[in-house]
Amino acid sequence: MGKVVMYASVSLDGFIADESDQPGPLFDWLTNGDVPLDESGSVTVSQTSFDYTRPYWDQIGVTIAGRHVFDLTDGWDGKPPSGIDHVVVVTHRPPPEGWDPEAPFHFVAGVEAAMATAQERAGDRIVEVAAGDVGGQMLAAGLVDEVRMDVVPVVFGSGKRYFGSVRAPHLLEDPDVVLQGDRVLHLRCRVRRSPI
To answer: What is the residue range of the signal peptide feature (predicted)?
Structure first.
């Protein structure tokens, strides 16, 4: 099985969106550079960000997201983002009315079932977990191997937290990647398996 990575762009004070679910300037780094990150040409980053992000994106087999993110993005119009093969949506509700049953989206109740579905689909590729409530639940359940953050120099003051509603402490290893891009700091830490 591939590793499980919790990921998102995040403000300095730990938020992935403001109170209105808007990312504000959190994604500005994705249009600040001159190196295209995907085929669309609309996502352009610094060379440092490209060298860090593109290989990671290429390893992702499945993304796990909550129903809230799915609804906010209108299900990415049935096409997984960034060339990912499958999206597993954690939800207790059925797919939206009129949803294409052939779209590579899997609607699953509970984080353990979502992880099992994702790992089966991903094989030895990375399972990416969107930060926020679902990511926090997966971290608390011991299902996350690594935390990746694209830290953006902005303070929101309130909003949607990177780790969702996690209340207990979780110790991570020292960052093994710390890279400065243009308007972003890329961090990667492995999750420590021993108790605090």
So the answer is: none
Strand order in the sheet with 105-108: 105-108, 86-90, 60-66, 126-130, 4-11, 146-152, 185-190, 177-180
Report the chain's terminal Cα–Cα distance, integer Å.
26
- Domain contains 145: yes
* pLDDT tops 70 at residue 196: no
- Answer yes or no: is 196 within a domain: no
What is the Rg, in whole angstroms, of the alpha carbon atoms belonging to the chain? 16
Per-residue tokens: 35? 């190196």
Q: Is the dihedral of CA 76, 87, 5, 54 positive or negative?
A: negative
What does the alpha-carbon distance between residue 12 and residue 137 come to, in Å, rounded to a whole number? 22
Which CATH number characterizes residue 45's domain? 3.40.430.10
Distance of alpha carbon 159 from alpha carbon 16, whole angstroms: 7
Q: Would you say the pTM of this structure is higher than 0.90?
A: yes
pLDDT of 3-44, one tens digit each? Answer: 999 999 999 999 999 999 999 999 999 999 999 998 888 899
Instruction: Tell me the three state secondary structure of residue 145.
Output: coil
Domain that residue 105 falls in: 4-190
How many CB atoms are located within 10 Å of the residue 165 CB?
10
Contact 49, 184 (CB under 8 A): yes
**How many structural domains comprise the chain?**
1
